[in-house]
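Fold it.
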Amino acid sequence: MPDSIDSIKTDAQNINSANTASPVIQALFGGTFDPIHYGHLRPVEALAQLVGLKQVILLPNHVPPHRPQPEATAQQRLEMVRLAVRDNPLFTVDTRELERQSPSYTIETLKSFRQEIGEQHPLAFIIGQDSLQTLHTWYKWEELLDICHLLVCSRPGYQSQLSAPGMQSWLEKHQISSPLPLSQKPHGYIYPATTPLLNISATDIRQRHQQGISCDDLLPPSIQNYIDAQGLYKK
């Protein structure tokens, strides 16, 4: 198995060459972002380098169906997301889920993007290993790969094997080991990426704020300043 520096350079050159000749992948990353933190941002930045993503669209959820309701308001969470990526050209923000009054079902959001970009343009949805483990509980999860690729970021403490019945064989059927095919088809692949393992959670950040513990190493300074100014997560 080649593991030399030359072989790594060759892989990078192949990806760059493929990106030049193929459509740019439109990538989406959704979340409650209550608040957004480095555990969201840094793995996705690493993923973008691995896959050759030019832009990642952040999708703050309005009413997440699988999680407790956010403590910050929709407007506060949106403002934190905008502050976090204000000076980072990789990211842009889409508010369509916040504009809904119904639960934020990923499949419906993906369908709306697919209608906008057409049937042949590569579309990818970014999730973590934790979400992959529970994907079978999502609304109409079986339709996801008919619309997009799944890009999976590593998460500390989660196995790569799926434990739910039938899910491991489903994963193996669609999994790819190189990002190159992602730009060659509009949907249908699962790419597990080796991204930084950051043990950061929004729950921990909220608890730290309640206890008066510093979160300076967990999220951008602009977000910390906003949380303090708004008096968030004090109860």
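Helices lie at 5-21, 38-51, 74-85, 106-117, 129-133, 167-174, 202-211, 221-230.
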